[in-house]
Write a structure and sequence with these properties.
The complex is a heterodimer.
Chain A lengths: L12 H8 L5 H13 L1 H21 L6 H11 L7 H7 L3 H45 L5 E2 L3 H7 L20 E11 L2 E10 L2 E9 L9 E4 L2 E8 L2 E7 L3 H14 L1
Antiparallel strand pairs in A: 1-2, 2-3, 3-4, 4-7, 5-6, 6-7
Chain B lengths: L4 H10 L3 H12 L2 H17 L10 H14 L2 H7 L20 H8 L2 H10 L2 H11 L5 H8 L3 H26 L1
Helix pairs in contact in B: 2-3, 2-4, 3-4, 4-9, 6-10, 7-10, 8-10, 9-10
Classes of the chains: A alpha+beta, B mainly alpha.
């Protein structure tokens, strides 16, 4: 959606929604970001609406079909029965037929539920990562530890995380990339280090968690206009999110991988 | 129903979407049994009209449109279409002064029961647009196709829907204090 905006005026309600939903053009989205950096009321609106969006997604997913319902719908889809749900019940198949239907439906059901749950978990994780990054951008608050010095940032996590990690020297980071600071975060209920980098005029968050957790995010994904990258190194899993180009995000992730 | 490449292709695309179709149908019908019938009917119609689906477009948006059109011709859908909602009277949904802190807002959106109650109270047209965006993750253009409305109306419904949710949460919070 191509839109232009007056960066000095407060964001219109539709602009806030379109920004959160990744529906703005990259120029308009950058204009929003510039405004949010200096406007506390608009930042609060973005944060609140982001929270309402996430809460709606969580609560909206509450109506899951029962195993029997899903099996009946799967059977309909595969043409195992061209009759309606009620007529299937009335027909009363023999025990052997019913057993075979049950086995076939269970297999289909497991496949569908497995794929569906994986997609939901992956989507939920991506949403959580993007929400936390967006909250960091929108909040305008300084990170808990604000420093460009890795010897200050890394020790701050001692005793706060059940794992350790290394940070690359400033010279080993990609061009125009600097460490800004870090926060303690939680991703999928696991403690994580949120490292914050400046890449040119953009910001990137890298979430470091223990590798023991399940892989729930694709190696590369895009969500709401933000790029996500996941990589593993040693005992760590790192997930980077930013609105910079995929190549710039890859370069940052690679530098962090090499430091481990 | 004989197996054919068209049927197989349709099945491959539709099978992973059964849970979300059912979920959306429950939100539309507000009755699990009716929702299951609606999904069955939509699947049947979608298979018959599968040739109209264009490769390269979003199958999920396409079949959601079929589901919604099926709903609109159902008894519940026809009853809903005769109801006039506040969306037609924007002034009635103007913002409510709150005086709540950001912490209060966070407490409310993290209260699942409160969010559930607010979603239940939301006008169906606004709720549908918000759910297609926030839950089903369709783009505005795709939501416009599903609902058969202009994209500007989609933006308006989503914005107004979220604001109404927020206001309902505020009201609940005030009443609980």
């Amino acid at each position: 959606m191509t839109q232009t905006m007056d960066e000095t005026a407060h964001l219109k309600p539709e602009e806030v929604s379109a920004y959160i939903d990744g529906e703005l053009s990259s120029d308009a989205s950058e204009g929003c970001l510039r405004h949010l950096r200096v406007c506390h009321p608009c930042s609060l609106r973005v944060l609140t609406e982001t929270q309402v969006k996430a809460a709606t997604a969580r609560e909206g997913a509450r109506f899951a079909p029962s195993a029997e319902t899903l099996a009946r719908l799967s059977a309909t889809l595969h043409g195992e029965s061209s009759e309606s749900r009620r007529s299937v019940i009335v027909r009363r198949p023999s025990f052997v037929q019913a057993a075979w239907y049950a086995v076939a439906a269970s297999i289909v059901l497991l496949g569908v539920m497995g794929a569906w749950m994986q997609v939901r978990r992956s989507n939920a994780m991506e949403a959580e990562i993007v929400d936390q990054h967006l909250a960091m951008l929108s909040g305008g608050a300084a990170p808990e530890v604000e420093s460009t010095d890795r010897h200050t940032v890394k020790p701050w996590f001692q005793g706060r995380l059940p794992f350790s990690f290394n940070l690359p020297e400033a010279g080993a980071l990609p061009p125009d990339t600097t460490l800004r600071g870090a926060d303690l975060a939680y991703v999928n209920g696991q403690p994580a280090a949120q490292l914050i980098f400046n890449i040119g005029r953009h910001e990137a968050s890298v979430f470091l968690t223990q590798r023991a957790g399940r892989v729930l995010i694709l190696a590369a994904a895009t969500r709401s206009g933000f790029n996500l990258r996941t990589a593993t190194a040693a005992e760590l899993r790192m997930t980077a999110v930013s609105d910079v180009s995929p190549a710039q995000l890859d370069a940052l992730v690679t530098a962090l991988e090499k430091a481990q | 129903m004989k197996s054919s490449p068209v049927n197989d292709s349709f099945g491959d695309l539709a099978l992973p979407l059964l849970p979300v179709l059912y979920r959306h149908a429950v939100w539309l019908c507000r009755d699990p049994s009716e929702a299951e019938d609606l999904v069955q009917e939509a699947l049947s119609k979608a298979l018959r009209g599968f040739e109209s689906f264009q490769d390269g477009t979003n199958f999920k948006a396409w079949i959601f449109r079929v589901l919604r059109n099926s709903f609109l011709t159902s008894r519940t859908g026809l009853a809903m279409s005769r109801t006039v909602y506040l969306e037609d009277h924007p002034g009635l949904l103007d913002s409510i002064e709150d005086g709540l802190t950001p912490e209060d807002h966070l407490i409310r959106v993290n209260d699942q029961a409160a969010v559930h109650q607010a979603l239940e109270q939301l006008q169906p047209q606004l709720r549908e647009a918000v759910l297609l965006c926030d839950l089903e993750e369709l783009k505005y253009r795709e939501i416009a196709d599903v609902l058969d409305i202009p994209i500007g109306t989609v933006m308006s419904r989503i914005t107004r829907g979220r604001r109404a949710l927020y206001q309902l949460l505020q009201l609940q919070y005030r009443e609980s204090r």
